[in-house]
Amino acid sequence: MSTTFSPPAAHHADLDERIELILNEVIARNPAEVEFHQAAREVLDCLGPVIAKHPEFADHKIIQRICEPERQIIFRVPWTDDRGEVHINRGMRVEFSSALGPYKGGLRFHPSVNLGIVKFLGFEQIFKNALTGMPIGGGKGGADFDPKGRSDGEIMRFCQSFMTELYRHLGEYTDVPAGDIGVGGREIGYLFGQYKRITNRYESGVITGKGLDWGGALVRTEATGYGAVYFLNEMLRRRGEGIEGRTAIVSGSGNVAIYAIEKLHALGAKVVACSDSSGYVHDPAGIDLELLQQVKEIERARISQYAERRRDARFVAGASVWEVPCDLAVPSATQNELHESDAVALVKNGCVAVAEGANMPTTPAAIRVFADAGVAFGPGKAANAGGVATSALEMQQNASRDSWTFEHTEARLAEIMRNIHQLCDETAEEFGAPGDLVKGANIAGFQRVAHAMVALGLV
Ligand code: NDP
């Protein structure tokens, strides 16, 4: 990429035009990676005023450098199913930025995984991790493997094969993966076990989301969902409102969704609907968390099973969960799951706040609908940062061979989420966009990484 940036005092329109040129080059250099283009556009759209204030970022070509991953690894993952048939998947790890610390970000196992999706997630992760204030860089990985319907043995063989290639790129000071869609405690166990076997090192800090008996930290499992609800609470408090007595919807029914529902209930809201990729359940009496966990975490079954076992709950196949009226929405399934028409329906039904538990679940057009309607909106890179922040706390405990209590760790998580909200809120205000937490998060995260990149020289 060779776009030149003649420094300072540029007229804003001119500046925006030059950032647009950089974005166009990023798109041209990474064809067909549509999710990455979307994530890059969202961040770059916010950077005009930052470059005007810090012309040195332009001199050092920080935007161009930050859009190019430091390293991308793509590899073959061969494995056999229970009948002995051979399968081949594609594994990848994008090590995006190590300006602030070792690459840090989850692994996703889902048939939709491709380089564009892993790069969008890795790119977001750079700024999210910066917002936590912890010493962690950004990365992400995964495979186009579909864990649905696979036995424990098949999952284990897949994880072992995946790690047999990836291990050489990892290390507690190098690159530290964690879970994401399709990768939970079971998969982290098999991945860590294989890493340990190959390297002959009990290097606990090489992966996070571990079980409590073998290096894991209390609250990590709950952290993303809890953190998103803490962030939602902060947004509401800023407006003199609260969570208690509100009706809420949480999309998805995986790790993030389950613990967002738990915390919403604990703070006095009633969650009346959640979903999976086959449809949603509406339970006007409030989601029964124990039953949901039994169906999704223990039986690994479909959400329709929940409705079959619960009086007055109904399953709606193939429809959007956002058609159910609510005051609060916490999209916690996957990217681009909340569209413009969903946002219009939510606004019409009186929704006042949205906090993204998932990464980029709200489309740009839907974000505009919320902004126009004055709905409080917490973008994922701020609202779901509690997961990775607690992963950093897990690394801290691994390094000191210590383990903290649930209460202590949850108090740290709550404090981190308050700080992230405050940082985004103040940054938005400083850059002339009060209340715009998308701008606040992108600018605050970018500035922290950019300052470090300038200090570290051209690397
Ligand atoms: P899980 O695998 O535990 O759960 C994912 C949930 O989302 C499932 O209910 C799944 O339904 C649903 N889902 C997945 N893909 C789709 C799709 N294409 N369409 C509709 N529904 C879908 O993942 P997590 O809960 O860990 O992750 C959820 C989101 O949160 C992701 O965006 C992830 O990147 C983000 N996130 C996760 C963090 C973590 O700590 N785990 C940290 C920060 C962000 P089904 O079972 O039918 O596939």
Summarize the structure.
By secondary structure, the chain is of the alpha/beta class. The chain has helices spanning 12-29, 34-44, 48-53, 55-59, 62-66, 115-132, 152-166, 185-199, 220-238, 255-266, 289-298, 304-308, 340-348, 364-373, 380-383, 386-400, 406-430, 437-456; strands at 71-80, 86-97, 103-109, 138-143, 175-178, 247-250, 270-276, 279-282, 314-317, 328-330, 353-355, 376-378.
Key structural traits:
alpha/beta, Rossmann fold, 7-stranded mixed sheet, globular, disordered N terminus, binds NADPH dihydro-nicotinamide-adenine-dinucleotide phosphate
Description:
The protein has 459 residues and is an alpha/beta fold. Among the domains are: 71-202, Leucine Dehydrogenase, chain A, domain 1 (Rossmann fold); 223-378, NAD(P)-binding Rossmann-like Domain (Rossmann fold), CATH 3.40.50.720. It contains 18 helices and twelve strands. The strands form two sheets. The chain has a seven-stranded mixed beta sheet with strand order 9-8-7-6-10-11-12, with helices on both faces. Strands 1-2-4-3-5 form a five-stranded mixed beta sheet, with helices on both faces. Strand 3 (103-109), helix 6 and strand 4 (138-143) form a beta-alpha-beta unit. Helix 7 (152-166) crosses helix 8 and helix 13 (340-348) packs parallel to helix 14. It is globular, with a radius of gyration of 21 Å. The model is unreliable at 3-11 (pLDDT under 50). NADPH dihydro-nicotinamide-adenine-dinucleotide phosphate binds at residues 179-182, 184, 224, 252-257, 276-278, 332-334, 337, 357-359, 384, 387. The site of NADPH dihydro-nicotinamide-adenine-dinucleotide phosphate has 24 residues, from helix 10.
